[in-house]
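Q: what sequence does this backbone want?
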């Protein structure tokens, strides 16, 4: 083998490995950013299987931040509550309310949450659909 060919192999081979590794890691999405965006709650499936239609609640995710927004028909307003999203593992997140515009107790009156912190299992996630499960209830969202 000529010297030029041997030198080219030693340079090209590591570059190919580096390129393949970067392509592999760029194709995987972390759940921290995978949920990013605004999701409208469409249905809540109760433990007994009954389905409640919803179209006035949004969950907004951005990195580790979380915002719960709803339409209040009585006041024709869109109150929103801020908090944090923590990734527990690939299929579980914790949402914690730390609101500033309203108190957490105000939030609890307008939601089905029992306290300011709630853990969810991610049952399904596609580009347009998100299904979360918590406390026996299934929450079905569409990308907004």
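A:
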């Amino acid at each position: 083998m000529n010297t030029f060919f041997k030198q080219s192999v030693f340079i090209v081979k590591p570059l190919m490995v580096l390129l393949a590794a970067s392509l592999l890691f760029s194709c995987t999405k972390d759940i921290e950013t995978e949920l990013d965006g605004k999701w409208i709650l469409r249905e809540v499936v109760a433990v007994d299987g009954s389905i409640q239609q919803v179209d006035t609640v949004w969950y907004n995710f951005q990195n580790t931040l979380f915002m719960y927004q709803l339409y209040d028909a009585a006041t024709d307003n869109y109150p929103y509550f801020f908090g944090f999203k923590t990734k527990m593992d690939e299929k579980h997140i914790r949402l914690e309310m730390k609101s500033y515009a309203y108190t957490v107790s105000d939030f609890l009156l307008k939601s089905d949450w029992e306290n300011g912190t709630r853990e969810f299992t991610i049952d399904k996630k596609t580009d347009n659909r998100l299904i979360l499960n918590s406390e026996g209830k299934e929450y079905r969202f569409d990308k907004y």
